[in-house]
Records
---
Amino acid sequence: MRVEHNPVICLLGCGGFIGSHLLCRLLAGGAYSVIGVDIASDRIQHLLDHPHFEFVCADVYDTAALEPLIAKSSIVISLVALCNPWLYTTRPVEVIEINYLHPLNLIRQCSAQGQWLIQFSTSEVYGKTVAAVAGLGDDASHQLLDEDTTPFVLGPLAAQRWCYAAAKQLLERTIYAWGFERNLRYTIVRPFNFIGPRMDYIPGVDGEGIPRVMACFMEALMKGQPLKLVDGGESRRVFTYIDDAVDAVCAMLAHPVQARNQVFNIGNPANEVSIAQLAQRMIDIYRRLRMLPPHHEIAITKIDGCQLYGEGYEDSDRRIPSIAKAQRLLQWQPRVGLEDALEKTMQGYIDYYTTRLEQAV
Ligand code: UDP
């Protein structure tokens, strides 16, 4: 990286799905120099020689490696997370360590040295809707989740699904406390199901286990297998296109005073669907993208959540963000509708995986 006077951002997890898209945008804008840390760099090969980028191949929890990099930066963006429901029920210790314990050093260092910490959290912190728990039914479950007033509602201890939400909640509370007591400058981001090209993996090709729903459905579509609806596919999600998510982070960087010590929901409330509706829309888009005849059969099947993910699986029934705060303070507005977001994401999978899947057979 050239010596220069741009603010330096330390991007932890620069090689992941969100990181690779964000890195691309930060470098294209020319206003920042970026030190990126990750163990993987396959998604960012095209950026490795960029004059404003220094890639450090290191474990993001290697404190000794990280400390000098953070010391050189004025902003730290931490994207590191294990965020995959299958891991919550199969590797909960690792989920808690990576999502809560490891980032603690980062908080201490940023607080001591004055870096602005932009920490990615999750919409999962909201858990289930209050309406679902109180048995109020669907009528009340559509209430918007508000960063500063909505309570967090999780399941019992043995429902290990919630270990990720609990870890991120405690991370948020720790950051909040350090802001309150020790002058930490921070911004917390709660993503609502970001989707886009280069997200997740296909089991047997570039990962193992059960990825998130977009990748599960794409795997099924591309292998000609049935799409599985967990517990009937009644849960609902808001899917947010990655370009809108990257816009939101750029808006935070552009509004440092307004973003200071705030939590922001980042999601597109107009893009809500049930998982059953998602399956149908993806089938329709897949037929169109692949120019399959209408009589080409694509099946949908149902599966019990605990059967797929293991004991301890529960689901978040619904989560629609209020984005009023991000609109007001950051002038941010999501723009990509569901159809467009799905089509671009699915095309990304088709381009990347068609040959790889053939080779994996
Ligand atoms: N899901 C599904 N079929 C699959 C994978 C996931 O019906 O093959 C459901 C899952 O039970 C949940 C929703 O899709 O209701 C979203 O799950 P995902 O793993 O993408 O992440 P989450 O939003 O729960 O963190």
---
Amino acid sequence: MQELRSQPIGIFDSGVGGLTIAKAIVNALPNENLIYYGDTAHLPYGDKSQHTIQAYTLSICDFLVKQQCKTIVIACNSASAAASQLVHEKYPDVSIINVIDPMIDYFKLHGDNYKKTGLIATKHTVSSNIYQNKFKLANIPTQLLAMATPLLVPLIEFGYSNSHILDEVISDYLDSCVIADINALILGCTHYPIIKTKFHQFFEKKAITNIDIIDATTLVPAYVRSSLVARDLLNNDASPYRKFLVSDYTDSFAEVATLFFGDDIKLELQTL
Ligand code: DGL
């Protein structure tokens, strides 16, 4: 049994975005071994077709299943939207957690507090209508106003997270009437929590104080924990390993990974 418990949690994204989820999982479950896969050779996912995102997602899941991950976290909204169902069909016995359903569950509980909510995400996530469809299916009373914000991921990946260019881009997007008069904003891309303070600053500057900015980092770890508890697979290793694999080495990935996990991490190149 201990052998099963020490199998890693597998987490993946197109790039650095999923590190926000990985960090939250490590904080909640510090004794777990972890493999993170950043598909940096293929980012951004959000501008690609559903077929292409599905192909990338399947090959990463194949790899993580071969690594005997006890739970796989699709730490990417675009991949969750494009391929969640597909990977569940391919691996019905593997615990696979996406980043969209926990948000839907959150709104099932708290939707009454939010009349109008903005959703910003990649082109793929927005055009898939997955949030809108799931809100409808769950009878969530919140009106969801969705807007694609495709410039944010490249700016984050190319190291512009602290730049005034990013401020301009955020202002341009959020000033849009598409998401006017909202009282919550869903960050529907796992890259966006990296620049969460920028969104807060935007609203502060406008003296808008009644907006909740919600992202999956606060929601997903509980799902991972429940999945492990339900199968009696919580690990108690005092010095767990954390592996960071990328399909292409990028400075920005190394920087953000170091920022989140400290200097001692080593990036390994792993093409699939
Ligand atoms: N972080 C991802 C998401 O949540 C992917 C962004 C991208 O590669 O376009 O959608």
